[in-house]
Amino acid sequence: MKRKATGGRFFIFLGFIAIFMSVFSTLFVFESFMQLYLSGSDLFMTALFCISVVASFALLDILMILYMLRLLPFSFKPSKKERIEELKEKKKELIKLKENVENKYYKRELDRKSFQNMLTQYERKISETDAKLNRLKRGKKS
Question: What domain range is 118 assigned to?
Fold first, then answer.
């Protein structure tokens, strides 16, 4: 079953922003450090400023990576309708596979034991998919 890439362009865009932020923060900190140090500022305050800038950009990069990996609670998740469609497609595919196994058995390409094992597996997967689909339609989390 083909899985749709939902939000793919958006995540690529976020990746480019993360790379840009990393490069920008490095250049910005180096330039700021040199200007502050050469202007005669206190070395401790200059270093503290640079560390705070690097830390803030690093924190933004980490948050963006976690968002892209869908580990944050507000990350993109497929909608209920998309999950229902995905489960319907999975069920159709499983039914086709089951029919293929039956056809192979009737053509004597499979022995009885293999046929029964495969048929049992497909029927179990179909019933699991049906259960998930029904839970999702009723509004319960699967």
Answer: 80-138
For residues 47 and 91, membership in a common domain is answered with: no
- In the DSSP assignment, the letter for residue 39 is T
Q: Are residues 84 and 63 in the same domain?
A: no
Please report whether residue 73 resides in a domain.
no
**CA–CA distance, 112 with 108 (Å, rounded to integer):** 9
Distances in whole angstroms, Cα of residue 91 to Cα of each of 110, 131, 140:
23, 11, 19
Assessment of whether the complete model's pTM goes beyond 0.70: no
What confidence tens digit (pLDDT) does each residue in 31-48 have? 777 777 777 777 777 777
- Whether 11 and 19 have beta carbons less than 8 Å apart is answered as no
Q: For residue range 100-112, what is the model confidence (pLDDT) as tens digits?
A: 999 999 999 989 9
In a domain, 1, yes or no: no
